[in-house]
Structure formats: structure tokens, C-alpha cells
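COMPLEX REQUEST
Ligand: alpha-L-arabinofuranose
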Amino acid sequence: MNLFNKNLLYPLLLTTLLPVTGRAQQHISVQSHIGQKSVKPISKDLFGVFFEDLSYSADGGLYAELIQNRSFEYSPGDNKKWNPLSFWDYTTEGHGYGKITVESAQPIASVNPHYIVLDIDDPGTEGVGITNSGFDGIALHSGENYDFSVYIKLITGSRVPVKVELRGKNGISYGQFSFKTAGKIWTKYTGSIKALADADSAKLTVLALAKSKIAIDEVSLFPRNTFRGEKNGLRADLAQAIADLKPKFMRFPGGCLVHGDGLDNMYRWKNTIGPVELRSQQRNIWHYHQSYGLGFFEYFRFCEDIGAKPLPVVAAAVSCQNSGGVGGTGQKALPPADMKSYIQDVLDLIEYANGPVTSKYGAKRAAAGHPKPFNLQYIGIGNEDKQTADFRDRFKIIYDVVRAKYPAIIIVGTVGPFPSGEDYDLGWKFADKLNVPVVDEHFYQKPAWFLNNNNRYDGFRRPKSKVYIGEYASWGNNLINALSEAAFMTGLERNGDIVKMASYAPLLANLSHVSWNPDLIYFNNKTLFRTANYFVQQMFSANQGDIYLSDVIKFRLPAAQTDSTLAASCVKDSGTGDIILKIVNAGGKEANTTIDLAGLKIQQRNATLELLKGAPSDKNSISGPDVVRSVKKDIGSSELENYVAPPFSLSVIRLKTEKTTGHD
Ligand code: AHR
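STATUS: Structure written out below.
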């Protein structure tokens, strides 16, 4: 049979789902047909990414700042071993002497209280100053520019010469520049250094070269080459790796980070906008520090840059049920008296994203350099929260107010941390009662769970709420883990009418500070590697469709035999007209298929096969090259017709078609 026979044209009768709005929609079951095949529309936002600042994903990761503890705000609250001078050394190499103190009497801003004072009696031959070791050293690329800035206030002395230098281990200099201080008030100084050579682990030294007393704060060094060259920007390679996933949405800033380790640790988005030196910093629930340099403006900007819809998540006014660990406080709720201002914060967030420049928070967005709205469509309320009366009361209050003021915003609720159990059941009951448009389910499970749950949503009661699988991963980064996720994802496409969104979690991990395994992308200061799981996510995400076509791919198995290691799906992308087949073989034998495209209104241009395969235990590592990576080639119709899926593989076949008209 010619798979691309132009005569096999059948009408595609396709009704559409009502768009989801802030009001929950009655699910409409759509079963239309192309020829013999049933067809249904699926979510246009199915595959996205989940970003949480854990494992140094933000500071020391995606946020390109190279100075650690730049504003001297580290404290034992972040980590018992830390203080405002952590990751800084007092530097007196040329026999200079004086003293260094941490002070807080006259800071740049009360939200950024600590700074250091150098009281220099004698600058010696080399000056007296401070040296920062970055996040496990500062990686430099030869010939690239690094932009430095610092706030200085001169307490005694005048026009003090200051030298800024990037240094290596044996006194080697990677570049320097100098300036003279000018004023007795906090003043920002800037300059740049072109790196003279590559370095894995440089340090930044700032030295004052005259007898004086000077206050220093907010010492910063950014590569000029950030993602898209943006100021206060993102590390280019990491941001690009995320962009390459072509995510339809990005959830941020977490995870447990959102509801926080106790009420005082709840993530407050307002602390994360405006000039960085005016952002109020916070300990991170994952036992380090959040500078909030990567804040809500930067998240929204990144989403826009990569074409992902933003999905910010706010706490449901309760803290994480695991707050304080074993024997800790557990879930705590904001007192009723604080709810009004908390809810206002949530409304202000929507105004910050979408409001006109004449609105209070729209004006703040414009002041940050983005007068145009960010087109926020989704907001999450709560994360994995224990379904207590406190949670329910507060969720409902926030939910009702947001719906009333912003009916077009799609609210995402939460049904606990597990795929079943008490919180899951209570959470769904509650979501049903309130008609919550979308709820967030989480699964961290073994590969077998993902294989055996391929049909999880097939028989799912078609509820009023749609599903967002906000966090899922099988426990590992071997190819078999990735393939089990791929098999599961075919089930998400098949049920893309009720599964609205899904995101693997977590996204990033700095190899020197891994708080959670597995992750999608691992990195050190110089480079990164993409896991097998990444390639699966990319192959699905870059090949999304908006129409599901059933019964196109069949595995040739003996009658009545089923095999959970085999899974497949077929979608159409009506934007391009392409038909996309995904075939997962998570077993050790070749799998014979029959691909029946009869009835699809396509005219062939060409077909490509993207193949990910290997041994089940194959995995990538930072030492590279990638053992597991997908490879693309053209594929002819004879190979396609009876496609043989190799053992342990994911095949994505994209049939490029001439766009035809009148069929959808
Ligand atoms: O992804 C890591 C953590 O797992 C998230 O913070 C939390 O939501 C989940 O339990």
C-alpha cells in the first residue's frame, strides 16, 4: 500500500472543545473521524517544563551571576556554616594591613542590610580588599567579556584607587581594570574585563589601594554573553538547553520552594522584582540562599524569550506540611488577618504580568523594561498541600477572589504529592466541588509504574477539571527510565483532551550541589549534559500535535497478547499539517508494527525518523560524549509501512505534508 496515496482522502469532521476559561468547563467528549480513525483535539499546551530553585538551579545555575554571596546576606539561617563573609576572603597580599568588618548601620536599603567596611591603615604594595571564590570557582572563557559592578561608599579618604582583578591559582591574572572612588554616598561603579585565557576556577579580587575606610556592597560579575545578551540575565548554555525543549509552558518558581519551610519562608514574588539590590533575600527550603536575582521579571522574560506560557505558582497561604522536618511545625496557615494582603499580592501578580502601564504593577513591569504585558494565562495556587481544613479555607478564598477579578485566568489547583491516597482523593473531591479548571498531579515512581500506568487516563472519569501532571519522573537517568516516561507520555497524548499539561521534574541540577535526583539537565560551571530523559522530553515536546488520531499504529503481537513495554501514539499538528508518530519499545526485542495511514488527508513531501536507542542502562555523563542521544534521518515509505522499532528505543516519525485545505 502506498502510505501517501493521494486518493485516500476522507473528510475530517472535527468539532472543538470549548476553550477552558477561569470557570470550569463541562467536558465534552469529542469523537470525530478521519476515515476509519477516531480523532480528538488535544491540549495545545501539553508538554512544558518545571523550574524549581533546588540543586543550585537559580543562584549558581541558570542565573548567570558569578559572585556568590554578592551582597553579604548569607547567614546561618541559610546554612549553619554560613555568615555574611562566606565565600569571601580578606586579602592583604602586599603586606598591607587594616581590618574588615560586617556592618549594617547605613545599608543601601534596609532589605539588603549587610555590607562590609574595609578600614585600611596601610595598603602595602598590593592593596587591601576582598576575594570571592564564586560558586565553586569562576569559570572564564578566553576572549569573552565579564561585566563587573559594585556599590562603594567612602567613609574616610578621597578618590581611592580600586583595582578589580580575575585571578587564578598561581597568581596568574586573567584580566583587570581600575577606577577611583568618587563619593561619600553609596555609588555604583561598573567596568569590564576581557578574559585573557580559559579558566575553570578563577576568583575575583577587589582591592583598595590607599589608606581609607570604605564600605562595599553588591559586588557583581556577569558574563556579557548571557542568554540573548540580556542584563541581569541567564547562563546562555543552560537557557538554550531549556529553549531547545521547545516547551509550551514553564512552571516556576517550584515546587516545595513555593509554599516554603514555615510561613516566614513562603515565596513572596514581590520580594523578587525591581533593582536587584532592593530585593529582599531569603533562605532556600533546600538549605542554601536565594538572592532573588532571578526573580519574577526574569522568569516572565525568559518565558517570553522561549515562547513558553508562564505558569507562576503561589502558595495557598499555607506552608509545606513537612516544614521543619521530622518533629517540625508541619503545615501552618496564614492567620485570617493576613489573608487580605496575601490575596492582594496574588491579584497584584496578575496585574504585574498583564496590567496596563497605567496600573500600579503594570507600571513596575514597564519600569523594568517591559511595557508590553506578558500575557499570563495560568496561575497555580498551592503545591502538593496536605488537604486540611486550613488549606481548603484559604485556597477557596484566594480562588474565589481571583476568579471574580480575572475570570479568564486559568487556575491550577493541587491534589497532594502522590498518584493516589488520602490527599489525592480529598483533593479531587474538593476540585470537583469548586470546579477548579485544572489540577496538578505528581508522580515520582519506578519505571515499571510508568509502563503499567500508560492507560491511567484512558478510563479516567471525564471530570470537570482537567489534569496538569506538574511533576513526574521515573527514578533514574538510564535509557530505560527515559523510555518508561516516553511510554507514559504516549498515554498523555492519547488523553490530551483531559491532560492539559505535563512537565518532567526537576529540570536542572548543579553537580556539586544535587539536592534531588534524577534531574533533566546536569551542569557544572563550564558545561552541561542532557540526560536520556531530556531527549525523550525534547522528542515529544518538539513534536506536539493538537489532534490525536487513534488506531494508526498497531504492534503485531500474537492475538490477545499485550505488552506493557510497547506504546505508541499518533498526532497531527494542524499548524504545519504534519502527522507525527511516536513508537516506544522499552523491551529487549524488536517490535514489528503496522502503520495504517489510510484515511489521513496527507500528501507526502517527506518523512523523517528521529531515533533514540541503546542499552537499558545507558546514561550520559558530564565527561561526555553523550552515550544516549537522538539521531535524525529521512525514512522511506517502505521502511515506514511495516516499521520495526529497535529494542529499547523511542522512534518519532514526522510525516511532512503539503498543507491541504478544508479538512480541519
Ligand atoms: O521536584 C522536587 C520536589 O518534589 C518539589 O519541590 C515538590 O513539589 C515535590 O515533592
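REMARKS: Residues 88-223 form a domain with the Jelly Rolls fold (CATH 2.60.120.260). The two ends are 25 Å apart (CA to CA).
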